[in-house]
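Contributing new records

If you add data, match the layout below exactly. Sequence lines come first and carry their own label; structure lines follow with theirs. Keep one chain per record. Anything else will be rejected by the validation script.
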Amino acid sequence: MKNCTRCKTDKPFTEFRVNARYRDGYTTWCSQCHRERNSSWAKENRERLSAKSAAWRDKNVESARAANRRFKIKHKDRLASLHADWAKRNRGKRNATSAKRKAVKLQATPAWANLQEIKEIYKAAALLGPQFHVDHIIPLQGATVCGLHCEANLRIIPAQVNVAKHARYWPGMFEQAQRQGDLFIEGAAV
């Protein structure tokens, strides 16, 4: 047994961290006291820690992304539970987002779209499982361009790729933008 100098209670040696700098080889505070103190220090210094973390992420973009990916994989079930709880508490926001998405999809569906083929694409994705999504190649709500909800603009891709893509880019986007840039150069042939 060892006495914690912070909480003043006797605890077994297993409750203390190993540290060779101390005479008996263990820290003077128990693990619980260390956790409490570190937590309160982090709360007191939140801005400093946030700035430090942001600076590191800016310098190490790829490492930060990899760490984020590992965290999401390791805590997948917990994150899904948190997301489900948030969705229950914020049903109005979820309904509004869902309604907006449906409205955009309806507006982006041309009269000539083959609805049966679109259903088949979604059915095929469902058979592959939740790790696959139906992706709009050119996003329905992109910042620079909006695509159509038709069979030619749909493809089945892994969920991770679709989620990472968001509505930011599509295949050939940069080449297309460069070709269109020539249209606006003065004196260029159209």
